[in-house]
Design brief:
Two copies of one chain form a homodimer. Helix content of chain A is about 70%, strand content about 0%. Chain A contains eleven helices and no strands. Chain A is elongated and about 60 Å long. Chains A, B: This is Transcriptional regulator, AcrR family.
DNA sequence: CATGGTTTGTACTCGCTGGTCCGTACAGGC
DNA sequence: GCCTGTACGGACCAGCGAGTACAAACCATG
């Protein structure tokens, strides 16, 4: 067998494909789809533009592959969650925190989803894999919600998808709009203290929204 | 004076400039910056590409002018708010509703801000007008917040900018990510019923977040 | 009705960029 | 050693698209 440690250079399709994909993630996340340059993606790798077309056929398909890849990364984030053993409020807190952390740790993901929205989600719409994977989140949320309702710690009548949007909205927005917010209000949202405060905020906002007490109308 | 009713065609700089700006707003909002075509902007007007360069010098400056314009549109939305006469909770509700309505009614605004974020807000950063205008929102929020706190209907210690992000985040996200959300979950967020429910949600979320009762930790 | 500045139109340039042509090198089966 | 398919590379091309050269109208003056 060849040595695994040393970089077995050429003739490694897996490695080449992966390298192109990583370079494409960085390039598309930085510049968006139209402004991204295939030549620049090639320059980020140790291979050539020809290889990009060899493995991915076109710039569009490459971008579609990038989306599949980063949406796939969310699956891992979800799986790390403690499932049904925790009390509902605690499970919900962890869900919110995991969502927050994933967005904060992966600004490329956020940017690429923004880019895809400007493209009107034509790639996501064409990918059953992405659609299915994400729709699963709703199931998890729904289960926790139902359990919490049964135990009387959450109020009834909450739509899981609406709740998902409430959670993701804040987590997404503070990353996607980091630059305009930073320019307008002069606060760097990447600072650790700000991020920690927002993380607590997100949890509190959700738990208060779900609380059964009908104090706020 | 010339007739105001009939279309006084050429030799109308104001009208020409305005027409170009409107066309540019539509084009940039639809396609983003890099994918937008100056020729297509010209085609959306009754004038020519030459005029775009005559009035705006370059594609970049045209985009900067577009941003100034749409951010300016927010000022009008704010002014319609009842100021300090209402009770704090009611004032806050109106603020949230106005924010929600503005985003829902102006998807171009949302898209253009998304595009600007992909450009890392370099245009907003270079425009003191935009920065100043928007920072003013915080003042309004801050005042309502302080009054509510004094009257005991809001809890203390809420940062106005954080609150602004909480409100805008949801309103922005459901428009900016309309397409991916629609593709993944199969729900059209433009439907009147869904929008109405989300509007109520936004208000409730904010009021619950601000409520002094310390039921949720 | 000259005159000069402003507004508008046409036809062009020219660099850039997605995509391809044609060829080489490598590995394994026989 | 030969042969076939897979992995790779560099040079090239064609069309697109931002920006401009060159005027021609137009309008307000004197």
């Amino acid at each position: 067998m060849p040595d695994d440690q040393a970089p077995r250079r050429s003739r490694d399709p897996e490695h080449t494909r992966r390298a192109i994909l990583d370079a494409a993630i960085a390039e598309f996340a930085e510049k968006g789809f139209a402004a991204a340059r295939v030549d620049d993606i090639a320059a980020r790798t140790s291979t050539t533009k020809r290889m990009i077309y060899y493995y991915f056929q076109s710039k569009e398909r490459l971008f579609a592959a990038v989306l599949e890849e980063i949406y796939g990364g969310m699956r891992d984030a979800e799986r790390a969650l403690a499932p049904d053993v925790l009390p509902p409020a605690e499970a919900m807190r962890r869900l919110v925190e995991a969502t927050f952390d994933h967005h904060a740790a992966h600004p490329e993901f956020v940017r690429l989803v923004s880019v895809e929205n400007i493209l009107e989600a034509k790639n996501v719409a064409a990918s059953p894999a992405i659609r299915g994977r994400n729709a699963a989140v709703i199931g998890t949320l729904s289960a926790v919600l139902a359990r919490g309702e049964r135990e009387g710690v959450f109020r009834p009548g909450i739509d899981p998808l609406d709740l998902h949007m409430l959670i993701s909205g804040f987590c997404f927005y503070r990353v996607s709009n980091r630059h305009t917010l930073g320019a307008i209000f002069g606060r760097d949202l990447r600072e650790a203290e700000v991020a920690a405060a927002h993380r607590r905020m997100a949890v509190e906002m959700v738990l208060r929204y779900l609380a059964p007490v009908s104090s706020a109308k």
